[in-house]
From TrEMBL:
Any single biological process term in GO: DNA recombination
Species, as recorded: Rhodovastum atsumiense
GO molecular function, one term: DNA binding
Tagged with keyword Cell membrane: no
Name of protein: IS6 family transposase
Keywords: DNA recombination, DNA-binding, Transposition
NCBIfam families in alphabetical order: transpos_IS6
InterPro entries in UniProt: DDE_dom, Integrase_cat-core, IS_Transposase, Transpos_IS6
Lineage: Bacteria, Pseudomonadati, Pseudomonadota, Alphaproteobacteria, Acetobacterales
All residue ranges annotated as the Integrase catalytic domain in the record: 64-178
Length: 233
C-alpha cells in the first residue's frame, strides 16, 4: 500500500488534495491554484501522481467499513473515454442507491459482465442478489445463465430487463460523469482505473455508506480517511 515516506509534503496536505480532487469536478490545474491560495506550492503534475498513488488505495482501505447493500441490484454501463477511445464502466447500485461495485472494461460483452458480477459478489458489503435489473443488453442474460450453471450465482436470482427500473443507476452515473468531464478523458487504462476507484470511494462516503460517518459531515470524513492512512486529522 502507498505510504507518505519520501514525499516532499505531509500526509495531511496530500490527503486534503486527494479528497478534494475526488469529491469535486475540478482539474489538476484548478487544484494547484486552490493549494497555492492556501500557501502550498504544488505543481499539477505532482497532484496527478498523488491521485495515481492514493486513489485506488483509498478505495481498498475503505471497503471493509461499508454498510451492507440490499439484494436488489440495478446494473448498467456508462461510457468513459480513455486515450481517445470509449471504454465501458460497469456500475451497480442497490434499491436505495448505495453503490454495490464498478468495473472498467474495454469491452461490453458477456465476459465483461461476468467479471463485473464476480467482482461485486466478492465484496464484503454485498449480498447474493434476489433480483438483478438491467437494460436490454443481450450480454446480461447470457452472463447470468452461465454463472447460474457454474454455481457462481444463486439459481433463484431473478433477472429483469426493464430500462425504466434502472433510472436509479442511470441517475447515479451523472455523479461520475461530472467528475470525469473536467479531465477530458484519461491517458491510459490504468490511470482511468485508479482515478475512477477514488471517485467511487468518495461517492460511497458522501452517500453515507461508511459506518458511523455522515455523508455530509466533512470533518468526520477527513478524520476517517486520515485514520485509514494512520495519520492525525
Amino acid at each position: 500500500m502507498a505510504g507518505f515516506k519520501g514525499r516532499h509534503f505531509t500526509g495531511e496536505v496530500i490527503l486534503w488534495a486527494v479528497r478534494w480532487y475526488l469529491m469535486f469536478p475540478i482539474s489538476y490545474r484548478d487544484l494547484e491554484l486552490m493549494l497555492t491560495d492556501r500557501g502550498v506550492a504544488v505543481d499539477h503534475t505532482t497532484l496527478f501522481r498523488w491521485i495515481q498513488a492514493y486513489a485506488a488505495d483509498l478505495e481498498k482501505r475503505l471497503r471493509p467499513y461499508l454498510r451492507p447493500c440490499t439484494g436488489s441490484w440495478r446494473v448498467d454501463e456508462t461510457y468513459i473515454k480513455v486515450k481517445g477511445r470509449w471504454t465501458y464502466l460497469y456500475r451497480a447500485v442497490d434499491s436505495r442507491g448505495q453503490t454495490i461495485d464498478f468495473l472498467l472494461s474495454a469491452r461490453r460483452d458477456a465476459a465483461a459482465a461476468k467479471r463485473f458480477f464476480r467482482k461485486a459478489l466478492g465484496q464484503p458489503h454485498t449480498v447474493i442478489p434476489r433480483t438483478i435489473t438491467v437494460d436490454k443488453n443481450a450480454a446480461y442474460p447470457k452472463a447470468v445463465a452461465e454463472m447460474k450453471r457454474g454455481d457462481e450465482l444463486w439459481r433463484r436470482t431473478k433477472l429483469r430487463q426493464c430500462k425504466y427500473l434502472n433510472n436509479i443507476v442511470e441517475q447515479d452515473h451523472r455523479r461520475i460523469k461530472r467528475l470525469t468531464d473536467p479531465g477530458l478523458g484519461f491517458g491510459c487504462f490504468q490511470t482511468a482505473r485508479r482515478t475512477l476507484a477514488g471517485y467511487e470511494a468518495m461517492a460511497m462516503m458522501r452517500k453515507g455508506q461508511v459506518r458511523k460517518v455522515g455523508g455530509r459531515d466533512m470533518k468526520a470524513q477527513a478524520a476517517f480517511i486520515a485514520g485509514l492512512f494512520q495519520i492525525a486529522a
